[in-house]
């Protein structure tokens, strides 16, 4: 793709890309996600990306399929009840290696015990279908445990934990706690002032002990947590100790759970 395009050529390429996206959505069911928080791709790069998708769709139209189990050559499936934890760990590592050798990658967002991960792969993933031959170089297949067994409670706890860790990390110049918050300009604008008021935080603990999920209109949740940390002003002239109950309201979006509103205990 020519890199040094003038603005007229770039605009023409943007229009071409838009038409190709619509065609892929209508004919192939493709989904393209855009966010106001993410910069748009340069039209040249997006054009190459669309070329790749169309090439993949064309090659895969007539390609036959087999299961993951067949792709791996039907490896033996062990009876995990007969294995020690160490033996099962070795078997699982060997299974991951076999999958990776075929560009198949399995992971989990949260910690999953070896026995459950082995069951997940041999009972759920082995049944999934793939193309019998490698359609294109560099194509990988990815399976995530939580896509099969979603756990809203763990996801919500992880979101709040991640937000807290980032909020109280002043060494982070990019203020990444914003990535967990849905709207910073309205009810959560105070977080900017709170963070700017201190020169140092000493984080002690956070424990999310109550989560309620509602699916009325949009999937939303409320969470209650216990938190403790110290906050120091510039030069450590003052120490404010925060300890007690906090609350969070969250909303589930396509990218995951996001915090709509959060409150912290008042300093002691």
How would you characterize the overall build of this protein?
With 268 residues, the chain is of the alpha+beta class. The chain has three domains: 7-60, no CATH class; 65-148, no CATH class; 152-263, Roll (Nuclear Transport Factor 2, Chain: A). It has helices at residues 7-28, 43-60, 68-71, 85-101, 114-124, 145-148, 152-167, 190-196, and strands at residues 65-67, 104-107, 129-131, 141-144, 200-214, 220-232, 239-253, 256-263. It has a four-stranded antiparallel sheet, covered by helices on one side. β6 (220-232) and β7 form a beta hairpin. α1 runs parallel beside α2 (43-60) and α4 (85-101) packs across α5. The model has no long low-confidence stretch (mean pLDDT 88).
